[in-house]
Design goal:
The chain has helices at residues 8-11, 151-155, 175-179, 187-196, 200-210, 213-228, 234-248, 252-264, 270-279, 299-314, 320-334, and strands at 15-22, 29-32, 36-41, 48-49, 61-66, 69-74, 81-83, 86-88, 90-93, 98-101, 104-111, 118-121, 135-138. It is α+β, with helices and mostly antiparallel strands. Helix 5 (200-210) crosses helix 6 and helix 6 (213-228) packs antiparallel against helix 9 (270-279).
């Protein structure tokens, strides 16, 4: 079993930022946005410039925050990028990890105080069966736990949200997208508007949160198939098939199989996130014999959006723009 408690950073749904905790620029914070690559360096060529740090390269390193993972890459900097004192070319960061670039030390900070779901291991829980996870969801006091989805809700396909104004806050649309919202705008029209403005990540978020859970999972599977083809390793193929099976027959047995498949793939690929989306659809996040810990209502949509974002750039990222358009066309079949 690949314990979920050892992959909490992969599962976090929280916001994150880099903070300079030592050296030039002390106290500065650089927000990380879901699916976005940020370039950090000394000059204005970087997205986040640190002109006070004279020993940084003009564009020193990049960071990408995606679905709870922070991917760090050194960009052939003159003086190197260090993680906990060790020089790296690339690495996956966990909350609290420190990076040194030039004379400054940056720390990855994960903030779960905004009402979103955060994950914590249950150290005292008895060992679960091999296919079960050992985490629980901690809910913000103002947001009580969501109840498990009713069986008939899982059978629905197509749009679950018809008005753009009804998209949930958990869709995490950026401010530009929110400014386009109108009370009487159909969600399909809103998505087309976002696409026309090339706000691709907001398009994927809006689609995932507008579709029913079943359609969102199936759409995410289709996007991954379209982007990755048949060239998948066994763990990813298993994840994708498990998600597709659940979307065809959304019952508890298939949901648990999707959970096991996502864990086997270690949540490192778009395929594994389709399986996680299926697992988050209903039921409990804990073992079958433990007290019920229902998933928050938005988690399937969140994982489905994450799967499509990762699929767009997972292989040949230079084709991402064409894939965004392809993913939109696939979604239109589900929004009819």
């Amino acid at each position: 079993m690949h314990s979920t408690s050892s992959t909490n950073s992969h599962l976090s749904l929280s916001r994150a930022y880099l903070e300079i905790v030592e050296g030039p620029g002390l106290g500065r914070k650089f927000p990380l946005r879901e699916g976005q690559v940020r370039y950090v360096g000394r000059t204005s060529q970087a997205d986040d410039s640190c002109p006070e740090n004279a020993t940084m390269s003009s564009v020193h390193f990049s960071v990408r925050w995606f679905a709870g993972q922070c991917e760090l890459k050194d960009l052939n900097s003159a003086n190197g990028t260090f993680r906990h004192g060790k020089k790296i070319s690339e690495a996956l960061l966990s909350a609290g990890d420190e990076i040194k670039a030039g004379k400054a030390t940056f720390r990855l900070v994960v903030d779960d105080g905004a009402g979103g779901a955060s994950f914590a291991s249950v150290a005292s829980a008895p060992p679960p069966p091999a296919h079960d996870t050992d985490f629980e969801i901690t809910h913000h006091p103002e947001h009580p736990p969501a109840t498990a989805a009713a069986p008939d809700a899982l059978l629905r396909t197509g749009l679950a949200v018809h008005s753009a104004a009804k998209l949930p806050a958990e869709a995490q649309l950026d401010d530009q997208a929110k400014a386009m919202l109108a009370d009487d705008m159909p969600v399909a029209q809103f998505i087309e508007l976002l696409a026309s403005r090339e706000q691709h990540l907001d398009v994927l978020r809006a689609i995932a949160h507008a579709l029913s859970k079943r359609s969102a999972v199936l759409w995410a599977c289709q996007c991954v198939r379209a982007a990755c083809g048949d060239d998948l390793n066994p763990a990813d193929e298993g994840s994708l098939k498990a998600a597709e099976t659940w979307a065809t027959d959304p019952n508890e047995e298939n949901r648990r199989k999707a959970q096991a498949a996502a864990e086997a793939a270690e949540l490192k690929s778009p395929a594994s996130w389709t399986a996680l989306a299926a697992f988050f659809s209903s039921g409990s996040l804990g073992p079958p014999t433990a007290p019920v810990v229902p998933p928050a209502a938005h988690l399937t949509s969140h994982a489905a959006a994450g799967a499509t974002m990762l699929a767009a750039v997972f292989r040949q990222p230079e084709k991402a723009t064409a894939r965004y358009e392809q993913f939109l066309q696939l979604a239109k079949e589900h929004m009819k």
